[in-house]
Design brief:
Largest sheet: 3 strands, antiparallel
CATH topology of the largest domain: DNA polymerase, domain 1
Strand order of the largest sheet: 2-1-3
Helix content: 25-40%
Oligomer: single chain
Order of helices and strands: HEEEHHHHH
CATH architecture of the largest domain: Orthogonal Bundle
Number of domains: 2
Number of strands: 3
Number of helices: 6
Structural class: mainly alpha
Distance between the termini: 28 Å
Radius of gyration: 15 Å
């Protein structure tokens, strides 16, 4: 996880999310809906975004897992984390880690995604505070989604 090999002994029914939070004390992925419907628990598995609440931990054995903590730290932020701050793309912050991880995966696939690709890449993550304009400004180019391009990452 996050660049370190971890060996765990857990019951087969433990989800990846519960293992990350309860066993490894990782707090970035959030347990909100616990049904794969909100995206707050989004992590990268071998570079692909997945919902950690919908995956058994044993299914992820031998795979590379990256949480928001693995993307960067407050001292050395990933460009997506920095863009979220610059674009005021968080409010309560509960959904932010999942959005940051999903956005990083989207921009790794395509540094300049179009509207349809943004919708597909971020459509499974929900923000109850409604910070969608700031989030879209992180990935949108100049003139789109109210963004001026100042915080645009990957493009």
């Amino acid at each position: 996880m996050n660049g370190a090999v971890r060996r765990l002994e857990v019951e087969p029914r433990v989800t990846l999310l519960d293992g990350l939070r309860d066993v490894l004390d990782t707090t970035g992925p959030k347990k909100v809906c616990d049904r794969g419907a909100c995206g707050a628990c989004t992590v990268l598995e071998d570079g692909q975004p997945i919902y950690a609440c919908s995956r058994l931990l044993i299914e992820s054995a031998g795979r590379s897992i990256t949480t928001v903590e693995g993307l960067g730290s407050p001292e050395a932020m990933h460009e997506v984390q920095r863009a979220f701050v610059e674009n005021d793309a968080q409010q309560c912050g509960y959904c932010t880690p999942g959005f940051v991880v999903a956005t990083a995966a989207l921009l790794a696939r395509n540094p300049a995604p179009g509207e349809e690709e943004i919708e597909a890449g971020l459509g499974g993550n929900f923000c109850r505070c409604g910070t969608y304009m700031g989030i879209r400004a992180v990935v949108a180019g100049p003139g789109q989604a109210g963004g001026d391009g100042g915080g645009n990452v990957g493009g």
